Amino acid sequence: MAFSKIELRNFRCFERLTLDLSPQSTLLYGKNGCGKTSILEAIFVATSGRSFRTSNLESLIKEGAEAFVIKAYDDLSGSILEIKKQKTLPINIKINNSKVTASELVRAFPSFSIDSKTFFYNDNAPEYRRKHIDRGLFVASTEYAKDWFGYFRALKQRNSALKLGDISQARAYDEALVLNGEKLNELRFSLVKDTQVVYQELVQSLVAENDRAKIFCEVTAELFPGYDSSIGLQTNLNNAHANDLRRRSTTKGPHKADIIFESKGSLIKDKFSRGEQKLLSIIWSMSQNIMLGRVYNLSPILLLDDLSSELDSEMLECFLPALKYIENRFIFSNIVDLFGSKIDDSNQKLKKFHVEQIT
Q1: How many domains does the chain have?
Q2: I need a labelling partner for 131 at 20 to 30 A (CA). Which of 193, 221, 300, 320 fits?
Q3: What number of other Cβ atoms are within 10 A of residue 166's Cβ?
Q4: Which among 315, 306, 356 has a CA at the least distance from the CA of 335?
Q5: Which domain covers residue 142, as residue numbers?
Q6: CA distance 138 to 126
Q7: Do 211 and 304 sit in the same domain of this protein?
Q8: What is the CATH number of the domain that holds 258?
Q9: Are residues 182 and 273 in the same domain?
Q10: Chain-centre distance for alpha carbon 115
Q11: Contact 102, 49 (CB under 8 A)
């Protein structure tokens, strides 16, 4: 599900705000400090139960108020979502007036945020890229969550034994590690492969409208599983006993996985400019979003804050045609409306809100 209308009460700078969202693309524009990012943050809270800006949800309550309330409506299913956070109480999440957990919320109303770290996806640590993959799979597959928790529970116990120098005790957790770890690797591999199919399709569409987009045609994405998958995880663990004891930690497995982006044999971070890296990250995130809709029958919302930051006019021109190929809701912000003369709103299903005028 993906909601089509959102209402805010006492959230950040907003006392009251109601927005009817486009089924495709929604642009929020206005000067810095007017509340664009706060609207995106509210949508993220409404789809995850947490903020992408702070771990302190109480700080999201408007000054002078006792609680914030977010309501959202799904026009297709008729579902109604309500989230309330009072100063002295935990967050309260209800779907159709029934209380649900944050995990249930994430699967009912999935969303993904393209933030400042995502902009430079390839400059970040492998852990960030793993989390980007895992978030998609957590939403798409309840089985993945079971395998993930099973793997990391066994990993924690195995590492505790290694810290004590007890390899025989560590090996007692290998069976659970292998059983869950190889399932994780298989699902991650499928997600990357399926996303790359959509990515190539999207890039070819962009090239047809803007020759500058050709730079993205030769980008390849490959999952490094964190171990040699050709011989299996168990053999990797057996071969790494000495190294694991020396490091007092498990050195092979899906917890070491990474996704490697290259172009003509060179790492993207060594080849692309910052603007090119940012646009690549946006296109890849869009591709994963579209793939989750096609393969897993989901309707995830994609959020992007401050589009034009780090993008020069060339990269912006490359991006504009991508709006035609969005298959789920895409909500993004920018300081100014760069698109009024370049996009036919009726054809592109683009809604624009001047945030300074709606507050």
Answers
A1: 2
A2: 320
A3: 13
A4: 306
A5: 116-298
A6: 18
A7: no
A8: 1.20.1050.90
A9: yes
A10: 9
A11: yes
The burial of 349, by beta-carbon neighbours within 10 Å (0-12 exposed, 13-18 middle, 19 or more buried), is given as middle
Query: What b/e readout covers 215-239, taking b as 16+ CB neighbours within 10 angstroms?
Result: bbeebebebebbbebeeebbebbee
Exposed, middle or buried, 181 (CB in 10 Å: 0-12/13-18/19+)? buried
Assign 162 to helix, strand or coil: helix
Confidence of residue 229 (pLDDT cuts 50, 70, 90): very high
- Considering the domain architecture, whether residues 217 and 120 belong to the same structural domain is answered as yes
Which CATH number covers residue 85?
A: 3.40.50.300
Same domain, 314 and 199: no
35/27 Cα distance (integer angstroms): 13
Q: Looking at the DSSP assignment, which residues form a beta bridge with residue 112?
A: 302
User: Are 63 and 134 members of one domain?
Assistant: no
Domain boundary among 265, 298, 331: 298
Per the listing, tokens 């800006």 go with 53
Rounded CA-CA distance 293/348 in Å is: 19
DSSP string over 235-262: HHHHHTHHHHHHHTS--SSGGG-EEEEE
Which pair of tokens denotes residue 82?
Answer: 């309500």
In this predicted structure, what is the pLDDT of residue 255? 97
137 and 248 part of one domain: yes
Residue 347 has pLDDT above 60, yes or no: no
Tokens 């409506």 found at: 73
Would you place residue 348 in the very low, low, confident or very high pLDDT band (cuts 50, 70, 90)?
low
Which amino acid type is present at position 120?
F
Please tell me the distance from the alpha carbon of residue 76 to that of residue 46, in angstroms, as a whole number.
Answer: 17
Question: Which tokens belong to 76?
Answer: 């297709």
Give the global pTM. Answer: 0.91
The tokens for 86 are: 């009072």
